[in-house]
Amino acid sequence: MAVAITPQVVRRIETAEHEAWREIDRAAPADIRTALGIECTSIGDGAVFAVSKIDHIQFNRLAGLGITREIMPKELDEGINVFDRLGLKNWIVHVPPQSHNLAALCAACGLVPHSRSWAKFVRDAAPPARIETDLNIREIGAEQGEIFGATAAKGFGMPPVLGKWLGAIPGRQNWHCFLAFDGDAPAAAGALYVHNRTGWIGIGATLESYRGRKAQQAILAARIAKGIERGCDLFTTETGIPHVGEAGPSFKNIQRAGLLIAYERPNLKRP
């Protein structure tokens, strides 16, 4: 059943994503935080997430601004100044609907749309479809955190040091982490974060040699089932909208799991 995209739903799904990223930041071990230059700073009603050693929009964003109130120009400036101080070029400002005056302030600062907009997805708590796969899907704890992190980082094509960061997430409160196994070999990873009965679905990555075997579809179903067990009545995730000619496997898998596009969320950047 389609979820009505009310202001309350927008706040819930944006807040769940925002809180998940705050928790990802808090999970970073001190040595990894230093090695990657990880910073998370509260700005207005949002936060700036920055990783100075990875100049990529996935890790460098100003998010959550304007969700609960109008923001002041100095708050937007303060967030942008963090990226400038760190020498980052590839950063974005998320502008969801009903973000009060954020879009107008960004325009006044000369920010323009990034070529990659993200789709924000939402789903109700209907039971997920059963996915047939020859891989074994298991929820894992802290004892397998290193395997989880290494699998996710390799699946994303990111450096191993990122795996040490993501490997600190399993076992933390309100996190549920899953691995797909081919025998004893890990094939794919995915996580669920539960915040106020909203489940944020993220960190989904599959090793290249296992793509096409429904690993992510099965892990998506497992995460939704776990969220329902935890009392979630709403699920959300986000991914980049494919350009013409792009395959967009994540974009398709998310919709196969019953998540529908709630809205397109522009990402704004400097020209």
Which stretches of 5+ consecutive residues score pLDDT under 50? none
Approximate shape:
globular
Q: Mean pLDDT, rounded to whole units?
A: 96
Q: How many angstroms separate the termini?
A: 40 Å
Describe the structure.
- By secondary structure, the protein is an alpha+beta fold.
- The chain has two domains: 114 residues, no CATH class; 128 residues, Aminopeptidase (3-Layer(aba) Sandwich), CATH 3.40.630.30.
- Helices cover 34% and strands 28% of the residues.
- The protein is built from eight helices and 13 strands.
- The strands form two sheets. It has a seven-stranded mixed β-sheet with strand order 7-8-9-10-11-6-12, sandwiched between helices. Strands 1-2-3-4-13-5 form a six-stranded mixed β-sheet, with helices on both faces.
- α2 packs antiparallel against α6 and α5 crosses α6.
- 44% of the residues are buried.
In short:
With 271 residues, the chain is an alpha+beta fold. It has helices at residues 7-27, 30-36, 73-86, 102-108, 145-156, 160-166, 215-229, 249-256, and strands at residues 38-43, 46-51, 61-63, 92-94, 112-113, 118-123, 136-140, 175-182, 185-195, 198-206, 234-240, 260-265, 267-269. The strands form 2 sheets. A 7-stranded mixed sheet has the order 7-8-9-10-11-6-12, with helices on both faces. A 6-stranded mixed sheet has the order 1-2-3-4-13-5, with helices on both faces.
